[in-house]
Amino acid sequence: MKLRLFVITFAVLLCQACLAQQHPTQVSSNGTTTVTMSVKGKELKALIQTMVVPKAAPNSPEEHFAQCTSSRTPCVLTSQIELFDGASEVFVPRGAYADLGDIFTAELTTSNGLSALTLRGGDASEAYIAKLEFNKDRVIRRSLYSAEDTAHPVEVSQFFMVSSGN
Question: Helix, strand or coil for residue 44?
């Protein structure tokens, strides 16, 4: 009887863990996408604002956007990313996302006391993964990976708080 109760309890806990797993959220090509995750009774939230811009023809005098990876037509630019840890807004420097275009999915995770927003974008040789690591106050680091090699970042940016008082 005790074994049966143990097995049932274990199965219920395992099912809850499976249901709690985060799955990537599809990012809208135009507008605001909301990604949420609950951690220890507190909600993490990311708001990703995107906009569609027409892609200029090669050698045309029209403006070209470096963020366009040619994986979406028309091109999708990231105009703003907002992060929230509970009710507190997390500072996100524009440099953490301004060069990321054609984002397809976004996912929030936590590990070792830090939270992360993982963005996947581009396609084929232009495919990338950007991981924005943050605490309750600010984005600390952005790691950019080729989607073909997720073990070695091709670029890492650190973000620091600057104080004029010292």
Answer: strand
Neighbours of 28 (CB within 10 A): 15
Q: Where are the alpha helices (DSSP H) in the chain?
A: 2-20
- The token duo for 76 is 């999708």
Within-domain flag for 164: no
- For residue 161, CA distances in Å to 15, 91, 94, 115 come to 42, 10, 14, 18
- Helix or strand or coil: residue 26? strand
Q: What is the reported pTM?
A: 0.81
Percentages (nearest 5) of helix, strand, coil residues in the chain: 15, 45, 40
Return the beta strands (E) in 25-96 as ranges: 25-26, 31-39, 42-53, 75-85, 88-90
Neighbours of 44 (CB within 10 A): 23
Q: How many domains does the chain have?
A: 1
Residue count (the chain): 166
Positive or negative torsion for Cα 156, 157, 160, 164? positive
- Does residue 117 lie within any of the structural domains? yes
Tens-digit pLDDT profile for residues 72-111: 778 899 999 999 999 999 999 999 999 999 999 999 999 9
**Residue 102 and residue 25: Cα distance in Å, rounded?**
14
Q: Kindly state whether residue 10 falls inside one of the protein's structural domains.
A: no
Q: Is residue 14 part of a domain?
A: no
Q: Which domain holds residue 54?
A: 23-158
